[in-house]
Amino acid sequence: MSQTDPEVHPTVEDVAEDIATMEIRGAATIADAAAEALAAQAEDSDATDPEAFRAEMRAAARRLRETRPTAVSLPNSLRYVLGAMEGDSVEELRESVTAGAEEFRTELDQAQENLGRIGANRLRDGDTVMTHCHSTDALSCVEHALEQGKEIHAIVKETRPRKQGHITARWLREMDVPVTLIVDNAARRYLDQTDHVLVGADSIAADGSVINKVGTSGLAVNARERGVPIMVAAQTLKLHPDTMTGHTVEIEMRDEREVLTLDEEDEIGDVTVENPAFDVTPPRYVDAIVTERGQFPPESIVTLMRELFGDQQGGEPWEK
Ligand code: RI2
Q1: In this structure, are strands 196-199 and 128-131 parallel, antiparallel, or unpaired?
Q2: Could you give the residue range(s) of every CATH 1.20.120.420 domain in the chain?
Q3: 3: pLDDT strictly greater than 70
Q4: CA 11, 12, 17, 23 torsion: positive or negative?
Q5: For position 4, what pLDDT does the model report?
Q6: I need a labelling partner for 132 at 20 to 30 A (CA). Which of 83, 263, 280, 286 fits?
Q7: Fold classified for 115-309
């Protein structure tokens, strides 16, 4: 935060902290929490003039933006809510922000539902999906397949270092889906028993590359070699507008202690630990990107991006 930035609301501070520490995680969930936090900032603001109110909202958005760099759902959410901010008085501005946040959150839920219904059509009765990490968009496809009366089995990768596969296993069990949990290194062996690799995305680039939890690209290469289709469930909130103008997606590097505890390091000796949270799967390893607007071969996702973002240029609303 710069010296001149106004104070942000404690809810914004808490949500930012929870996103950074991954108490709140998953691209869609992060976007939802960020929109809710902006609404809290707007509701409780005691700014007396419109410019002070706008400055507070920008400071809150900046604080949320700086937490994690890779999932574009976060800046897309902030852009949506701040883009809705309009009015001449504090009251008008406040109302426009809270209404924008509510609308965003409703659309997010709706998009996930619609995406799930489309993705479910790719799954046949009796299919086995292999999952990586935990994606609410991916699980929406399974949920809708079950609603269509299909029986689905799941092979769930543990997903080191944070074992987010455990969250997926829990959700699937709540849906009564039979789950086989495997360590990441066993994935290739179990591809023989898999009908679809089903993953989510944190960002999708204009060339159709999929940025998702580290390990996705290796899984996709192995799946392609075994002839198993790779399906990416990603609502359009995951499309990264900056990649249309040549920018690349920053890959978050997380704390080395997620990989190696201090005690473990004491035993091993001094080592360098690298802990990238995400990797990039090139479009040639992806069969379909399933969005709420239909399913797309990765190479054609750019047409949807042009339609959604147009020639969107210039700085972000929180940078003014
Ligand atoms: P949904 C997660 O990142 C995973 O990489 C997951 O595939 C992706 O977000 C999308 O999740 P992290 O926040 O939006 O766990 O589909 O690092 O829930």
Answers
A1: parallel
A2: 10-114
A3: no
A4: positive
A5: 63
A6: 263
A7: Rossmann fold (3.40.50)
